[in-house]
Write a structure and sequence with these properties.
By secondary structure, the protein is mainly alpha-helical. The protein has five helices and two strands, in the order E-E-H-H-H-H-H. Strand 1 and strand 2 form a beta hairpin.
Length: 88
């Protein structure tokens, strides 16, 4: 298997970034929260941004429709990070 590393500092692959994006991470900061990618030297942040592109991010879709980015979206049970589940 050919692994393309996005983040050398933490060994995060392109596939892992795409998986986090598919799970709802819409920004490099959200990718960093999920995987630590981009939190050390930062050289991978632009690559992460390009992988995220303008794809199907629920919050981005809300913005495109003129809604607030803070509007609630449907998140499957257990998909939210524990800190967010406790705050709800």
């Amino acid at each position: 298997m050919n692994r393309v590393y996005v983040c050398s500092c933490f060994g995060i692959t392109e596939t892992q970034v795409k998986e986090h994006a598919a799970a709802g991470a819409c920004t490099p900061r959200q990718i960093a929260s999920a995987s630590k990618a981009g939190t050390d030297c930062g050289s991978c942040v632009r690559r992460i941004q390009s992988l995220l592109g303008r794809g199907g991010c629920p919050r981005r879709e809300l913005l495109d429709q003129g809604a607030s980015a803070l509007a609630e979206i449907d998140v499957p049970e257990g998909a939210a990070p524990p800190a967010l589940r406790e705050a709800a």
